[in-house]
Amino acid sequence: MAATNTNYDRKSELKAFDDTKEGVKGLVDAGITVIPRIFHHPPKLDDNLDSEASSQFSIPVIDLQGLELGSPTKRKEIVAKVAEASEAWGFFQIANHGIPVDVLEEMKNGARGFFEQDTQVKKELYTRDHSRPVLYNTNFDLYSAPAATWRDSFGMYMAPNPPKPEDLPEICRDVLVDYSKQVMKLGKLLLELLSEALGLKPSHLNDIGCSEGLLLVSHYYPACPQPELTMGTAKHGDGTFLTILLRDHIRGLQVLPQNKWINVPPAPGALVVNIGDLLQLISNDRFKSVQHRVLASRVGPRVSIASFFFTGMLPSTKLFGPIKELLSEDNPPKYRETTVRDYLACVHHKGHDGTSVLSQFKL
Question: To which CATH superfamily is domain 10-35+47-361 assigned?
Answer without folding.
Answer: B-lactam Antibiotic, Isopenicillin N Synthase; Chain (2.60.120.330)
